[in-house]
Amino acid sequence: MKDEGAGVYNTLMSEDAEMNRSFQGPRAWFWGSVAGWTLLHILLAAQLPVSGDEAYYWDCARHFDWAYFDQPGLMIWPIAFFRLILGDISLAVRAPALMASFIIAPMMLGLIRRLGGGYSRATVAYSLLHLMPLFFLGSLYESTDIGMAAAYIGATWAAVAVAQGDRRGWWGFGLAMGLGFLAKFPIVMALPLILVALGRKEARDDLVTATPWLAALMSLALTAPVWIWAVSNNWDNIFFQGMRRMEGSGLTLKYLGEFLGAGLGLATPFLAIAIVLALWHFASKGQVDRWVVITASMIPFLVFALISLRSRIGAHWGGPGMLIGAVILSLVAFKGRRWLIGSGAVFGLAISLAIIGIVLVPEFLMDAEWSYAGRPKRFNTGELSRLVGNEEIGAELQRRLEPGEILLFTSYTDAHLFAFLSEGQLKTRLASLADGKHGLASLYWYESGDLIGKDALVVTPKGRLVRLLPIYCTEVEELAPVEIFRNDEVIRRLLLVRCRGVIRDQGAFAR
């Protein structure tokens, strides 16, 4: 089986090289596919409603800073620029994600060419990514993950170059790691790739030159904004990241099962199986550069699988490994490969289109009572209701506000989403009453004491939080809730409480 797989692999490479030598067709197909997928990303990004987390990034961009409490700044800073050009629209918010997904294409091409392939294989790999719901949807969703994914494949490409004796790879690796750290801290997972690359003598010989060390200094310098913010804010961002990773219960296999199961769904089970088979064939030749790529595909799953033995983690965190897996799958042929890819295409695109449809017309599924009680997150009709009526709620809140009042939300996503929907007209802030750990960046934007003596309208979906307000307010007055009706039934209710004369804001409304 190994010989058969190697023979098919060599045939594919020969055909690819011959096509690239003889005419420019493969190049046109590659860039045409990239342009087509990018255009589709842009169209969907313009149509799909912005989520609360995306609105959080938008609000962070309005308060430009070196970094933020729970995120570095690389995927946030460009939003400030695109707001000036496009205004406060979804495309401005999602522009960094669209840019990152586009950048992945040429870096994927560079990696594939390093491994003996060409434009034809790169077209296959980039298309394979879009069969996975994780990448198809993640390409147009503003998040730090897509930025880190771009840096991760860049680091893999550079580490392969180092393993092949190209000293320029050190600069590429340093650049990818530095920028990747500014996108999302877990890019440090890529550091072992350079250790694998050092398995080749030519790479180890580079260590006696200045290049690797200067590249490392450059990488460290690129991360300076994170450390500047940390020093100015008691190292809160670093402690948050460290403590969040250490949180959890005792050892359990439940979270591991959730992580692996959700990963199969996001990659589609068919493509996941195909990638595993491709890895087996790819490892048949023991070159160091191949082991760099194999390691890159496995590290995210191994790292987060270990973490999931103690705590629940994001289902999408294995995404960088899936991206490298698509590269390997594009380079290796084996029996059943075409069937697995075809089945994955049907399965993956069906899931992606179903999710897009649900987001665009959530009320279609709300007529039926349904729920999913599993993990990594519980879903039910109530979750879908959060997609309905936001414009109505925003208008009602605007009507209820008295002169001089500020809106305080106990949900950080609501605080930023309603600010975005009003194009910044609603003055909103977070009321951190629920002991939440995410979305606390806004607490750092205001001086403690600036709300003392002022009035606020507090918005919360949780009645238990209303009982905490007398600690912060001279007078508390519960108002009629804001309710959204569909088919004469209340599908969403937000409680309103007038807080007159704020007497304390530290910890809840400001840092």
Question: How would you sum up this structure, described in words?
Answer:
With 511 residues, this protein is an alpha/beta fold. It folds into two domains: 355 residues, no CATH class; 113 residues, no CATH class. The strands form two sheets. It has a five-stranded mixed sheet with strand order 4-3-5-7-6, covered by helices on one side. Strands 1-2 form a two-stranded antiparallel ribbon. β6 and β7 form a beta hairpin.
Relevant terms:
globular, 511 residues, single chain, 59% helix, alpha/beta
Tally of separate helices: 23
Beta strand % = 5-15%
> Which secondary-structure class do the elements indicate?
alpha/beta
Q: Give the strand line-up of the largest sheet.
A: 4-3-5-7-6
Low-confidence runs of at least 5 consecutive residues: 1-9, 18-23
Count of spatially separate domains: 2
Give the CA-based shape. Answer: globular
Q: What layout of secondary structure does this protein have?
A:
Layout: H1 2-22, H2 25-47, H3 52-62, H4 77-86, H5 90-114, H6 119-131, H7 133-138, H8 144-163, H9 168-183, H10 191-197, H11 201-205, H12 211-222, H13 224-232, H14 236-246, H15 254-267, H16 269-282, H17 288-307, H18 319-331, H19 337-360, H20 363-366, E1 371-372, E2 379-380, H21 381-385, H22 390-400, E3 406-409, H23 412-421, E4 428-430, E5 456-460, E6 473-486, E7 489-502
Helix pairs in contact: 2-5, 2-6, 3-4, 3-23, 4-5, 5-6, 5-8, 6-18, 8-9, 8-10, 8-17, 8-18, 9-12, 10-17, 15-16, 16-18, 16-19, 17-18
